[in-house]
Amino acid sequence: MAKYLLFPSQAAAKERVPLFQTALIRAGKLEICLAHTPEGFFAVSNECTHQRASMHKGKVLPECKIQCPWHGYTFSLKTGEDLSGNDCPALKTYPIHVSEKGIEIEL
Predict the structure, then answer these.
(1) pLDDT (average), residues 30-54
(2) Fewer CB within 10 Å of terminal CB in the chain, N or C?
């Protein structure tokens, strides 16, 4: 799997994506929602599995969750799992690596 540098440092990442905020990341044809939580950064597919809303416009919730902006479906940022009890397919998750190189995403 390929790794792509998102930010040269944690400080740069935190400045661009403040705590409890999201950012849209484009990697080729992929659109990825990057979310900043107290536990760190998490990346999931940007398209909600319910009705394709843009997850980067959603709300980051405590306990590493993200809420869809259209219908309020809630997903785990760690596993992508639907936590709303609606049997939606999970969001795809992407590993984030923090090192001296900066913050990278694995695709």
Answers:
(1) 96
(2) N
